[in-house]
Write a structure and sequence with these properties.
The chain is of the alpha+beta class. The chain has 3 domains: 92 residues, Acyl-CoA dehydrogenase/oxidase, N-terminal domain (Butyryl-Coa Dehydrogenase, subunit A, domain 1), CATH 1.10.540; 109 residues, Butyryl-CoA Dehydrogenase, subunit A, domain 2; 135 residues, Butyryl-CoA Dehydrogenase, subunit A, domain 3, CATH 1.20.140. It has 13 helices and 8 strands. Helix 1 packs parallel to helix 4. The longest helix is centred in the last third of the chain and has 30 residues. This is Acyl-CoA dehydrogenase. Keywords: FAD, Flavoprotein, Oxidoreductase. One of its GO terms (molecular function) is flavin adenine dinucleotide binding. One of its GO terms (cellular component) is plasma membrane.
Length: 390
């Protein structure tokens, strides 16, 4: 917490708290804590809330001012996320653009791409989805088979993507394609393309999950097209570009979700106190373990974020730290869901009062899969941290 220690950020913290108190009212207040990066509950309310955040210039805090950001530092962003989570504000909806694509464009995009897309992201005028995983290439992105060929100033795209979060809400997709099928190494010959959804060659089919939500989608490309200039980071350079995106997905982009876990633990403790479950020594110990896990998540996430911005930290070290953070957070959240269902008892299965515990349990099952499976995360740690053979 050294990044935000002392009184130098008190004015900014007061500004955040005051704004949230004044604007998180009415329908927004009635939807406190609603949704998640993988839950489309109360979508229209959350869109309206995100536009409210945009009007207050609370989106893309660290982005340059010329694109609509504030150009502030990491400490301010962390403070905002903590206060946002503490206020239980509705989950933001365009996280694919705000947390993943936007930083990728800032690092690898052309000046024209930044000017074209970043202001519209911050204005909540365009939604984005990620086209990485495929039926035969989930965590192993080097195996992608969606192909793109340049012809007449346009990229022609053929293939299929799956598990595209909020894909049915997206105006654009950022799609990893194989543009050179003849290279000997699989991770070469890949290119990241920006593809408009509203065209005959793109078909998106929502996928219902076990919690009854349809946040995931399948995306089919049948001679889908995008212009030649919609390449991020250069033709054939898709692998390092995508790796930088994934390091954020497994690191700093998890911060809002991880901070909300702290609130979930607090609510679960209060529930256990009201129902008498806190008197059970075994459940009480598991609640203590859950709270300890929250503090571990917080400290490791801060370290990952600071490492990502420290030029002295190597890329492989940052990736390994982000991987460890993601692995711990996803497994810990699953255990929390299991504990919530046990504390709620039959209500979690049959009653309306147990809806939050039920949804926590069901949605957390996917967390050890999306963003890279836990098996892949352990392989990365074994190879890059422990030096074990492939």
């Amino acid at each position: 917490m050294e990044l935000i220690a002392g009184g130098q950020y008190d004015d900014f913290r007061d500004e955040v708290q005051t704004w949230l108190a004044e604007h998180l009212v009415g329908e927004f207040a009635a939807h406190r804590g609603v949704g998640s990066p993988t839950d489309d509950t109360a979508w229209d309310v959350r869109i309206a809330w995100e536009k409210e955040l945009s009007d207050g210039r609370w989106l893309g805090l660290t982005w340059p001012t010329e694109y609509g950001g504030r150009g502030v530092g990491l400490a301010e962003e962390i403070i905002f996320e903590y206060e946002y989570a503490r206020a239980a504000a509705p989950a933001r909806v365009n996280t694919q653009a705000l947390e993943l694509l936007g930083p990728t464009l800032l690092a690898h995009g052309s000046d024209e791409q930044k000017a074209r897309f970043l202001p519209k992201i911050l204005a909540v005028e365009e939604m984005w989805g990620q086209g990485f995983s495929e039926p035969g290439a989930g965590s192993d992105l080097a195996a992608v088979r969606t192909k793109a060929a340049l012809d007449g100033g346009e990229w022609h795209i053929e293939g299929q993507k799956v598990w595209t979060t909020f894909g049915d809400r997206a105006d654009w997709l950022y799609v990893l394609c194989r543009t050179d099928p003849d290279v000997s190494l699989r991770h070469r010959g890949l290119t990241l393309l920006l593809v408009p959804v509203d065209q005959p060659g793109v078909e998106i089919r929502p996928i219902a999950n076990i919690a009854g939500s349809e946040e995931f989608s399948e995306c089919f490309f049948n001679d889908a097209r995008t212009t030649e200039d919609m390449v991020v980071g250069g033709v054939g350079n898709g692998w390092p570009v995508v790796m930088s995106t994934l390091s954020r997905e497994r690191g700093s982009a998890l911060m809002p979700m991880q901070l909300s876990v702290e609130r979930e633990v607090g609510e679960l403790v209060e529930k256990a106190r009201r129902t008498g479950a806190l008197d059970d020594r075994r459940l009480r110990q598991r609640l203590v373990d859950a709270l300890i896990g929250v503090h571990i998540m917080r400290s490791t996430n801060l370290r990952v974020v600071s490492d990502m911005l420290d030029p002295r930290t190597s890329g492989s070290a940052t990736t390994a730290a982000a991987t460890a953070s993601k692995l711990f957070a996803s497994t810990h959240h699953q255990r929390l869901g299991e504990l919530a269902v046990e504390i709620e008892g039959a209500e979690a299965v049959f009653g309306d009062d147990g809806e939050s515990a039920r949804k926590l349990f069901l949605l957390s099952r996917a967390e050890t899969i999306y963003g890279g499976t836990s098996e892949i995360q352990r392989n990365i740690i074994a190879e890059r941290v422990l030096g074990l053979p492939r």
